[in-house]
């Protein structure tokens, strides 16, 4: 049997029966603002609201519940940047099995804490997913544990394919499904399911530009490793496609596109502000691709963007909000020189306030600048309503005699 035939719709339906009651049927939410920007009716498959905060619970549960009793008694091991680790820990706990999770040292703290709360034993390694996977293989061989791969296994792919069942059932007129693409388990499972149930629907996979091995791998028809995994989308930062998942993606996924971290941050802010959804970087790539026009919407029917996860550290989320506001032109840095006397700065701040700007930071600069002894340089970091509001503030300040210069988008 060819690799691409090793998982079928029958397997996906079997997974759906097996994991029923253990995972959540996540909602399809209408995204009005995103739809307005894209020019289509857009739905969001909110896997960020899944138990454990990501789609990974589906595949992990299907894989672990199919293990023989002796394997469960010995325990399981898995490599993960965080989401799969949480899923394996949770699924193993529910069947009373030991779970050892090998995670990169730089894994998000929120994900590490969640793994431990589910009862998982965390083992850190230097590097990323690929280094963690190599260590998980060594531990499986040494300690007699069963490895639950994050994506490159038929049972895992079948579990992830249950998302496709739910999309096809809830949105029978769907014409485009946009899916985050890391190792390929999610995209492979959804695309094979949609191909069987909704063959007129296109499936597009989205990778982070900083780690996009599928572009070269699909062209070469073999796994080709990426040089880097430097992206805020840690959940899909897999350097090498799977030997099992690459043929699935090649057969069933219609197109693969990439997005930048800046574009992902902007998408995260849109989801937070307009859909009230907290979505991690990897989970927002489908929305980013739609926002940036990387994917052409269909003439009719629904577009579905899969939000694969919502497990993001609060500190990273705040940085993504800052970055997203910058990309959208809603945060800028202005500099000017004012007389070094009481009240001089107040006039500039009044102009900002009168035009709806919010001052995030103010810095006085005197050293190392060629300014008069009775002057001081001022740097302002502002939150605004956007590029038009930026121009209003700058024009008003210049009209009142301030020599304002835009240093950069903050």
Give your account of this protein's structure.
The longest helix has 17 residues, at 154-170. Helix 5 packs parallel to helix 6 (109-117), helix 8 packs across helix 9 and helix 12 packs across helix 13 (285-291). The chain is elongated and about 80 Å long. The protein folds into three domains: 3-53 and 160-324, Rossmann fold (3-Layer(aba) Sandwich), CATH 3.40.50; 56-147, Rossmann fold (3-Layer(aba) Sandwich), CATH 3.40.50.1100; 329-409, ACT domain (Alpha-Beta Plaits, 2-Layer Sandwich). It has helices spanning 9-19, 32-38, 56-65, 69-74, 83-94, 109-117, 129-143, 154-170, 185-197, 213-220, 245-252, 261-274, 285-291, 314-327, 344-354, 387-399; strands spanning 28-30, 41-46, 76-79, 99-104, 121-125, 146-147, 174-180, 202-208, 255-259, 302-307, 331-339, 358-365, 375-383, 405-409. The strands form three sheets. It has a six-stranded mixed beta sheet, with helices on both faces. Strands 5-4-3-6 form a four-stranded parallel beta sheet, with helices on both faces. It has a four-stranded antiparallel beta sheet with strand order 12-13-11-14. With 410 residues, it is α/β, with parallel strands linked by helices. Helix 6 (109-117) links the parallel strand 4 and strand 5.
């Amino acid at each position: 049997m060819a690799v691409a035939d090793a998982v079928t719709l029958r397997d996906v339906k079997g997974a759906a029966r097996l994991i029923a009651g253990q995972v959540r049927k996540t909602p399809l939410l209408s995204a009005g603002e995103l739809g307005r920007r894209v020019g289509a009716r857009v739905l969001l498959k909110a896997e960020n609201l899944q138990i454990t905060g990501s789609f990974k619970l589906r595949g992990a549960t299907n894989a672990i519940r199919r293990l023989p009793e002796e394997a469960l008694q010995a325990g399981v091991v898995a490599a993960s940047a965080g989401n799969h680790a949480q899923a394996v820990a949770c699924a193993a706990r529910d069947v009373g099995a030991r779970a050892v999770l090998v995670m990169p040292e730089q894994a998000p703290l929120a994900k590490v804490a969640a793994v431990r709360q589910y009862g998982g034993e965390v083992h850190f390694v230097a590097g990323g997913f690929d280094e963690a996977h190599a260590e998980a293989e060594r531990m499986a061989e040494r300690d007699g544990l069963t490895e639950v791969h994050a994506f490159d296994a038929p049972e895992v792919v079948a579990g992830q394919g249950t998302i496709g069942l739910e999309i096809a059932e809830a949105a029978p007129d769907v014409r485009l499904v946009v899916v985050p693409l890391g190792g390929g388990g999610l995209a492979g499972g959804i695309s094979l399911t949609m191909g069987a149930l909704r063959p007129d629907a296109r499936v597009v996979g989205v990778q982070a530009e900083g780690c996009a091995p599928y572009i070269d791998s699909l062209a070469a028809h073999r796994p080709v490793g990426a040089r880097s995994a430097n992206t805020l989308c840690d959940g899909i930062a897999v350097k090498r496609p799977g030997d099992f998942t690459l043929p699935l993606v090649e057969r069933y996924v219609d197109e693969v596109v990439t997005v930048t971290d800046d574009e992902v941050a902007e998408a995260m802010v849109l989801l937070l502000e307009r859909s009230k959804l907290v979505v991690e970087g990897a989970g927002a790539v489908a929305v980013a691709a739609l926002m940036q026009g990387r994917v052409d919407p269909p003439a009719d029917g629904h577009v579905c963007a899969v939000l694969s996860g919502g497990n993001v550290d609060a500190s990273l989320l705040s940085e993504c909000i800052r970055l997203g506001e910058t990309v959208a032109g809603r945060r800028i840095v202005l500099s000017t020189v004012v007389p070094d006397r009481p009240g001089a700065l107040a006039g500039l701040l009044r102009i900002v306030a009168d035009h709806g700007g919010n001052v995030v930071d103010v810095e006085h600069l005197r050293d190392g600048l060629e300014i008069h002894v009775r002057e001081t340089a001022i740097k302002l970091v502002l939150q605004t309503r956007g590029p038009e509001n930026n121009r209003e503030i700058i024009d008003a300040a210049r009209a009142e005699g301030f020599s304002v210069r835009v240093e950069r988008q903050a």
